[in-house]
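Quiz preparation item.
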């Protein structure tokens, strides 16, 4: 029946009977998302240059591995997947432009990306307007999938990662239960939706647990001298410092803090997850620091071991970080939805993504909840001489 339907649809298109339809139909004019083509096009709107380029590079490597595995296994609906790359330069406005081009020019059936919440929020209005599914690999701010002004679901938007309320709660509980912290200072990137979200959720859980927030400090992306604020933090003498930022500034802050004699634990989120963090901070400075993340390559589960082995084989023995695993999972989420929908028609693909249940991926078994957020476990990692080591796994 599928072949007959495809023939009829091709005939209709050839006869011009579907002329004048809007963007939603134009982007999926045949099964496969591109008229007369032999591939299904998926866009990758990622940070390939700029301040979060390490994230985008890792996510792209993971996405490419997923595409290769799918195509080596025969593709989907009789077609190969084709990944169309677009560099958003780590800027929200560029992420918007890249998404528009991917949909209108490249005719993709879905977009994966971006890796950060702020940049993903630049894509959300485009996905909503054009009616093309967006699966962010690692945007963790809740407002990515739920409009904070109206409380309405962004029905075309999904993610492969858990969200900040869970991540902030995990680290606040870890501070209390494992580090025995009673006081904390929060040092936030005021230019980042991601960082401000984690600040809110860590604070709520930490104070609920009986802890005291001694002060809340802030910085901006691209700042380089943090000594004035760190002097105040040192005088406050907290048990822990919660630093929910991205690796570039985090590395500089931790390095300068250790040089000033601040020895207490630093804690952060998945925004720390980059090989460049140890290069910027220095391996010794990262000792006694902890981060929440989406998976650990040290996890002994067969799914993680299989992913790590395949990634290392494809990337010169490079160990995949969390961003690589999430880029891989984002493509697999889309591919699974296309398979179950038996179509790349946008509405069917959107509904199939929303119906994802018990899908085993590299970062865990995923079930999509009512706000299009995966329900899955988090891990806490400890840095030992610059290397991430598995500390704990936390289920939702």
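Solution:
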């Amino acid at each position: 029946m599928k072949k007959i339907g495809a023939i009829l649809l091709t005939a209709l298109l050839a006869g011009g009977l579907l002329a004048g339809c809007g963007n939603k139909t134009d982007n999926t004019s045949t099964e496969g998302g591109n008229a007369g083509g032999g591939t299904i096009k998926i866009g990758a709107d990622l940070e390939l240059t700029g301040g979060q380029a390490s994230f985008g590079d890792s996510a792209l490597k993971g996405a490419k591995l997923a595409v290769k595995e799918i195509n080596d296994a025969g593709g989907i609906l009789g077609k190969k997947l084709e990944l169309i790359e677009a560099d958003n330069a780590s800027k929200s406005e560029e992420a918007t432009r890249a998404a528009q081009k991917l949909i209108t020019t490249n005719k993709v059936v879905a977009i994966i990306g971006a890796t950060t919440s702020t940049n993903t929020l630049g894509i959300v209005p485009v996905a909503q307007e054009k009616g093309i599914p967006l699966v962010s690999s690692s945007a963790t701010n809740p407002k990515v999938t739920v409009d904070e002004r109206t409380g309405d679901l962004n029905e075309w938007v999904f993610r492969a990662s858990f969200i900040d309320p869970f991540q902030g709660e995990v680290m606040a509980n870890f501070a209390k239960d494992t580090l025995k912290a009673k006081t904390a200072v929060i040092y936030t990137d005021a230019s980042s939706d991601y960082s401000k979200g984690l600040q809110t959720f860590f604070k709520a859980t930490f104070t609920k647990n009986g802890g005291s927030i001694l002060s809340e400090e802030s910085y901006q992306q691209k700042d380089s001298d943090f000594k004035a604020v760190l002097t105040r933090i040192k005088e406050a003498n907290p048990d822990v410092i919660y630093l929910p930022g991205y690796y570039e500034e985090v590395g500089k802050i931790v390095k300068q803090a250790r040089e000033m004699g601040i020895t207490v634990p630093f804690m952060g989120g998945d925004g720390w997850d980059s090989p460049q963090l140890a290069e910027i901070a220095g391996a010794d400075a990262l000792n006694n620091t902890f981060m929440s993340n989406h998976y650990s390559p040290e996890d002994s589960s067969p799914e993680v071991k299989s992913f790590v082995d395949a990634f290392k084989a494809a990337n010169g023995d490079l160990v995949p970080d969390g961003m690589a695993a999430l880029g891989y999972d984002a493509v697999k989420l889309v591919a699974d939805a296309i398979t179950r929908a038996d179509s790349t028609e946008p509405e069917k693909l959107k509904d199939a993504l929303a119906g994802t249940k018990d899908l085993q991926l590299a970062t865990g078994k995923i079930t999509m909840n009512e706000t299009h957020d995966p329900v899955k476990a988090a891990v806490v990692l400890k840095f030992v001489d610059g290397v991430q080591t598995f500390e704990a796994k936390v289920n939702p």
